[in-house]
Amino acid sequence: MDTKDIENGLFEISSEREFNELAIEIFHYQYDTVTIYREFVDSVSIDTRLIKHYREIPFLPVEFFKTHRIISSGLKEEKIFLSSGTTGTTQSRHFVADLSLYEKSFIKGFEYFYGSPEEFTFLALLPSYLEREGSSLVYMAEKLIKASGNPDSGFFLHDYDRLAKILSGINSKKVFLLGVTYALLDLAEKYNLNLTDAIVMETGGMKGKRKEIVREELHLMLKAGFGVGKIHSEYGMTELLSQAYSQGDGIFHTLPWMKILIRDTNDPLSLLENGKTGGINIIDLANIHSCSFIATQDLGKKYNDGSFEVLGRFDSSDIRGCNLMIG
């Protein structure tokens, strides 16, 4: 199969019908070319010929990314993204066959929610991510910094003084401050910043640097510390090539080439209706060459407009140091 047609249609999806058709096409491609996914689908005794809707597609448990090389046969990875993990845990590995696809996904995703990166001074405060290899978040931030074309844009490892000076002096462009949670709290506590018009986005937890706190309390502290009305959040993971974003209150929205479904925690092949709490399943159609249908270890709830909330983690799973707070 020539996947160029799939790629060309991926970012042009504008209806439920188009999403479903592309999802079914990608499912059959991945069933044919991704060995471990085919073995998983066969193990749950589903006749793939009968699948007509994306809700009928089996979702691969995310843990398989820790133990298997998930990539379409015959392809070689351009890059391997690694999860942060914690001491003593196995890292997830995402073998990315086409980095340009990832770049298109996060640039178009950013534009979908926020507009052109050129409109922003993009400031990234990501110490825990910068201090390890293979972070997909750092790769994304680096490209957004470059796309902004602004000399003030950049990474700030521990240089809070320089960052605070830039934040205090910027008035020509909109500010986008992306930070790991504990570092944003450190910055807010150390400096008296009033960033009324800035976008402040937290990603990740405390990374062992601070005590974990509930999202509502965290966002109150950050809003007070930066003088903003909302705290934005990003929901993504190593195993995905797309992100969902919250523009306040912990309610996330997906891109047109993504969908969230909620599964029954006692029956993982059954999906729940909107408003019920269960395991989060993600369809990320940008994952053309690995697996687009992933059952995460996150708990959440989906609403009638397609938005969703992340409520925690399965108790039995590893703690993933990535992109969510327990709410």
Describe the structure.
The chain is an alpha/beta fold and 327 residues long. Helices cover 31% and strands 21% of the residues. Strands 1, 4, 5, 6, 7, 8, 9, 10, 11, 12, 13 and 14 form a twelve-stranded mixed β-sheet that branches. The longest helix has 18 residues, at 16-33. The chain is globular and about 60 Å long.
Short description:
With 327 residues, the chain is α/β, with parallel strands linked by helices. The protein has 10 helices and 14 strands.
Spans where pLDDT lies below 50 across 5 or more residues? 316-327
Q: Based on CA inertia axes, which overall geometry fits?
A: globular
Portion in strands: 15-25%
Please state the structural category: alpha/beta
From N to C, what is the helix and strand string? HHHEHEEHEHHEHEHEHEEEEEEE
Q: Termini separation (Å)?
A: 43 Å
Rg: 20 Å
Helix content: 25-40%
Sheet with most strands: 12 strands, mixed
How many strands in all? 14
Instruction: Supply the number of helical segments.
Output: 10
Question: What order do the helices and strands come in, and which of them pair?
Answer:
Blueprint: H1 4-10, H2 16-33, H3 35-43, E1 60-61, H4 64-67, E2 79-82, E3 93-96, H5 99-114, E4 120-125, H6 127-130, H7 136-148, E5 154-155, H8 160-169, E6 174-180, H9 181-190, E7 199-203, H10 215-226, E8 232-235, E9 244-246, E10 251-253, E11 258-263, E12 277-284, E13 293-302, E14 308-313
Parallel strand pairs: 1-13, 4-5, 4-6, 6-7, 7-8
Antiparallel strand pairs: 2-3, 8-9, 9-10, 10-14, 11-12, 12-13, 13-14
Helix pairs in contact: 2-3, 9-10
